[in-house]
């Protein structure tokens, strides 16, 4: 059916709506099924994209088919694919199709999940899904939480609650503690909440990149003696750099003894508690005061799907308590059912729907197996890298992440750093697979995060062979050659 222009206002006919919908579904189904055959990276540079996409603000509309084609050709095909089975950079975002459809439904029905009577079913689903997460992490029945955009806002929300409940609004002399491996979302959250840089004490991590409890104890005693007010310890359940998990159980003991709030950034690693690989390292997670999660990472949801859990669900309403005259009649007496009192947003997307549907459609066992696949892939990647003989493993596979450096035959450390650093740009240029670097103790390292369950052993083999070939080419290039 051909599209008729000019259109009446903002409306489409029933047939046109179906046609648009079927076209969009076809695009997505092709993408899901053909993704592995495509390169990971074919991103254009800024100038090229500017030349293609820049145009005057349209006064008149165009056929939807052409606009969708432009999106597919110029936007999708010029982006790196973070859900591709050979994308190992940062935290791969391996979403799932039912979650994608749930996002379409949430947008389509435009569910307003802020006050109880406006969307009681949605509020109940969010409460239930939060409660399933509570059970997964072993928190007490009084615990609760809310869906947010992602890990950054989950951390910010938890720290806002910690400030409110623990400090009663008086931030003078208050200090929070974490390791130097904490995600920058935490530092940014603390700054946005009004804490000065010295009110977040970043302690040097230990040899395993974990928060050392003995050093923490010493720092807190010194700060108390100096008249400061230690109030919170912020731990990682899987750092982005290396997958290191801070000693949660020990920290929980320590915080309980000292009257400190224990917040855990579990944005990446917390779901690993569902596997036999992850559960031992994550022991203690059930004792936290607050936990930041990111279901768009290791629970396979489309971007955005963060969650913040609090040991006592009333703390959220105590923190985000501003009353609304307009919405008063629509709210429920049980404040925790009015999600506008659970966080920063009033009008908010129904994000719980995608996780709820995923739990129901796949079941927890399938999700746990998909998480376990990440552990197994990282172990295989480590074995393959060792077998190449030209890679030094810097941190072994843990929580599906490993880091490594190029090791030239002559042992030259400067050459190792140059090749390791320049490899990232070379991989991007090649496009077949992508892993990105990071810095550990001031040294460049390569890093692979293998949490995508669609990654096959062959993907790993071919990616590591490619890295070895590109590294050898870089080594052979004259010193100082700059790539990309
Ligand atoms: C450990 C950790 N915390 C927080 C974040 C921030 O999460 P988001 O990107 O969803 O805001 C990330 C993102 O990679 C992360 O890995």
How would you sum up this structure, described in words?
The protein contains 14 helices and eleven strands. It is α/β, with parallel strands linked by helices and 484 residues long. The protein folds into two domains: 12-43 and 79-95 and 363-484, Aspartate Aminotransferase, domain 1 (Alpha-Beta Complex), CATH 3.90.1150; 112-349, 3-Layer(aba) Sandwich (Aspartate Aminotransferase, domain 2), CATH 3.40.640.10. A seven-stranded mixed sheet has the order 1-7-6-5-4-2-3, sandwiched between helices. It has a four-stranded antiparallel sheet with strand order 8-9-11-10. The longest helix is centred in the last third of the chain and has 37 residues, at 352-388. The mean pLDDT is 94. The chain binds pyridoxal-5'-phosphate.
Gist?
By secondary structure, the protein is of the alpha/beta class. 43% of the residues lie in helices and 13% in strands. The structure holds pyridoxal-5'-phosphate.
Strand elements, count:
11
CATH class of the largest domain: Alpha Beta
* Backbone shape: globular
- Tell me the radius of gyration: 24 Å
What's the oligomerization state? single chain
The main β sheet shows up as: 7 strands, mixed
Label the CATH architecture of the largest domain: 3-Layer(aba) Sandwich
Assign a percent range to the helix content.
Answer: 40-55%
- CATH fold-level name of the largest domain: Aspartate Aminotransferase, domain 2
Total domain count? 2
Rounded average pLDDT: 94
Strand order of the largest sheet: 1-7-6-5-4-2-3
At the fourth CATH level, what is the homologous superfamily of the largest domain?
Type I PLP-dependent aspartate aminotransferase-like (Major domain)
Sheet/helix structural class: alpha/beta
Order of helices and strands: HHHHHEHEHEHEHEEHEHHEEHEEH
């Amino acid at each position: 059916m051909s599209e008729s222009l000019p259109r009446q206002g903002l409306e489409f006919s029933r047939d046109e709506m179906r046609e648009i919908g079927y076209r969009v579904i076809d695009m997505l189904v092709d993408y899901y099924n053909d993704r592995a055959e495509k390169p990971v990276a074919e991103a254009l540079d800024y100038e090229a994209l500017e030349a293609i996409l820049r145009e005057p603000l349209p006064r008149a509309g165009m056929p939807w088919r052409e606009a969708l084609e432009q999106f597919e050709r110029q936007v999708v095909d010029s982006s790196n694919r973070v859900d591709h089975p050979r994308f190992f950079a940062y935290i791969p975002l391996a979403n799932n199709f039912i979650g994608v459809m749930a996002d379409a439904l949430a947008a389509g029905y435009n569910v307003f999940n802020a006050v109880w009577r406006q969307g009681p079913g949605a509020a109940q689903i969010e409460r239930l899904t939060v409660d399933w997460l509570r059970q997964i992490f072993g928190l007490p029945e009084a615990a609760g939480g809310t869906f947010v955009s992602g890990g950054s806002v989950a951390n910010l929300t938890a720290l806002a609650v910690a400030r409110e409940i623990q400090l009663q609004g008086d931030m003078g002399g208050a200090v929070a503690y974490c390791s130097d491996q904490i995600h920058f979302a935490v530092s940014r959250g603390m700054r946005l909440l009004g804490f000065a840089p010295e009110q977040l004490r970043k302690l040097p991590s230990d040899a395993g990149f974990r928060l050392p409890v003995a050093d923490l104890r010493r720092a807190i005693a010194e700060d108390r003696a100096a008249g400061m007010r230690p109030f919170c310890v912020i731990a990682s359940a899987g750092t982005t750099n290396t997958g290191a998990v801070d000693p949660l159980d020990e920290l929980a003991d320590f915080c309980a003894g000292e009257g400190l709030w224990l917040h855990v950034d579990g944005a990446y690693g917390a779901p690993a508690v569902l596997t036999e690989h992850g559960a031992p390292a994550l022991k203690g997670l059930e004792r936290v005061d607050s936990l930041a999660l990111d279901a768009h990472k290791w629970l396979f949801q489309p971007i955005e799907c963060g969650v913040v859990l609090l040991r006592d669900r009333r703390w959220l309403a105590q923190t985000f308590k501003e009353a609304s005259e307009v919405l008063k009649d629509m709210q429920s007496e049980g404040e925790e059912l009015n999600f506008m009192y659970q966080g920063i947003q009033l009008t908010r997307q129904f994000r719980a729907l995608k996780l709820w549907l995923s739990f129901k459609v796949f079941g927890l066992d399938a999700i746990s197996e998909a998480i376990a696949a990440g552990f197994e892939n990282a172990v295989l990647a480590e074995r393959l890298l060792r077998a190449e003989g030209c890679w030094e493993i810097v941190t072994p596979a843990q929580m599906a992440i490993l880091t490594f450096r190029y090791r030239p035959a002559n042992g030259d450390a400067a050459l190792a750093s140059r090749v390791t650093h320049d490899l990232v740009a070379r991989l991007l240029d090649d496009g077949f697979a992508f892993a990105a670097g990071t810095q550990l103790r001031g040294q460049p390292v390569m890093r692979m995060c293998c949490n995508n369950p669609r990654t096959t052993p062959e993907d790993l083999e071919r990616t590591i062979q490619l890295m070895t070939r590109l590294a050898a080419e870089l080594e052979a290039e004259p010193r100082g050659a700059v790539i990309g």
